[in-house]
Specification:
This protein is an all-alpha fold. The protein is built from six helices and no strands. Helix 2 crosses helix 3 (32-41) and helix 4 (49-86) runs antiparallel to helix 5 (90-112). It starts with 6 loop residues before the first helix and ends in a 7-residue tail after the last helix.
């Protein structure tokens, strides 16, 4: 007769030895949810420190990516502003203004994810001022005579 250890005992012993839930499941061939249930019934908990550290690292990485993206959006806004200043007709002014508006809105949303809530009001104010300036430039372009016509 073979002396095979009880799977429940194996789960509890491995969990007490410090193995993670998924590792215990892999070693015993028992589904992770069953491993959790068996361990809980025996009063054994799994150390979630590694999971917490991995989650924290992912949050930090995502924030760093948002910072980089925000910087790239600012560069794109600068390029769109150059196109706005180089615009020769109302259509070009309009499209450059729309690009600036969309890029600035995207920048505010991305930067706002990590910033304090009061920055939103300041950003909206800045966008409002930008909108008014662009509308003024648009109106001036529409009002100016083109091709020498009065």
């Amino acid at each position: 007769m073979t002396n095979t250890p009880d799977p429940r005992t194996q789960v509890v012993d491995l969990a007490r030895a410090g193995h993670g839930r998924n590792e215990v499941a892999r070693l015993t061939g028992i589904p992770p949810t069953t491993v959790t249930r068996i361990a809980a019934e025996a009063g054994v908990t799994f150390d979630r420190t590694a999971t917490a550290q991995a989650t924290e690292a992912r949050v930090i990485d995502a924030k760093a990516k948002r910072v980089l993206l925000g910087g790239h959006l600012l560069e794109d806004i600068d390029q769109a502003r150059e196109q706005l200043h180089a615009a020769t007709d109302a259509k070009d002014v309009f499209f450059a203004a729309k690009a600036i508006d969309a890029l600035a809105s995207a920048h505010v949303r991305i930067v706002g994810v990590d910033g304090p809530p009061d920055d939103t009001a300041e950003a909206k104010s800045l966008l409002g001022a930008l909108h008014e300036a662009l509308v003024g430039k648009w109106d001036a372009a529409e009002a100016s005579p083109q091709d020498g016509q009065p």
